[in-house]
Amino acid sequence: MRKVAGDDYLIRTFAVNTCTRQRALNVAVHFRPLSGDWKTEGFFPVPPNGIALMAESTNRNYYLSAQRSDGRAEIGGDKIRDMPAGGIGRFRTFGVADWGDVFHRGGC
């Protein structure tokens, strides 16, 4: 566990692609970064058997969206956000009970 400022502890959110074939997992995140204002980033391709750091925050709540390379939703939800490159993403709400590293697995 790592303190970042005062009494705030860091949460790091990772995406893990468990697919062993040649298929990327495309992941987006809506979160409140260490700099303060909420923002949306993605979709980022996570290669087969790959791992990517998606967000660092002191906020325990964040939103994820993930799509398989064939376009099917791996993680989706009822929160709709505009994407930086255009279009929309459907995000699922996540909340963590403790500080530290959080891993979300998906693929194929």
Describe this structure in words.
This protein has no helices and 11 strands. It has 108 residues and is an all-beta fold. It has one domain: Immunoglobulin-like, CATH 2.60.40. Strands 4, 5, 7, 8, 9 and 10 form a 6-stranded antiparallel β-sheet that branches. Strand 9 (79-82) and strand 10 form a beta hairpin. The mean pLDDT is 86.
What is the mean pLDDT?
A: 86
Strand content: over 45%
The number of helical elements comes to: 0
Q: Please count the beta strands (DSSP E, at least 2 residues each).
A: 11
Second rung of CATH, namely the architecture: Sandwich
Characterize the biggest β-sheet.
6 strands, antiparallel
Shape: globular
The class by helix and strand makeup works out as mainly beta
Q: Tell me the distance between the termini.
A: 32 Å
Oligomer: single chain
Q: How many separate domains make up the residues? A: 1
SSE order: EEEEEEEEEEE
Q: Helical amount among residues, as a percent range?
A: under 10%
Q: Class, according to the CATH hierarchy?
A: Mainly Beta
Using only C-alpha atoms, the radius of gyration works out to: 14 Å
Classify the fold: give the CATH topology. Answer: Immunoglobulin-like
Stretches where pLDDT is under 50 for at least 5 consecutive residues are none
Give a nutshell description of this structure:
This protein is mainly β. The chain is 0% helix and 59% strand.
For this entry, give a set of tags.
108 residues; mainly beta; Immunoglobulin-like; six-stranded antiparallel sheet; 59% strand
Give the secondary structure arrangement, pairings included.
Layout: E1 3-5, E2 8-9, E3 11-17, E4 25-31, E5 39-46, E6 51-57, E7 61-68, E8 73-75, E9 79-82, E10 88-95, E11 100-106
Parallel strand pairs: 3-11
Antiparallel strand pairs: 1-2, 3-6, 4-5, 4-7, 7-8, 7-10, 9-10
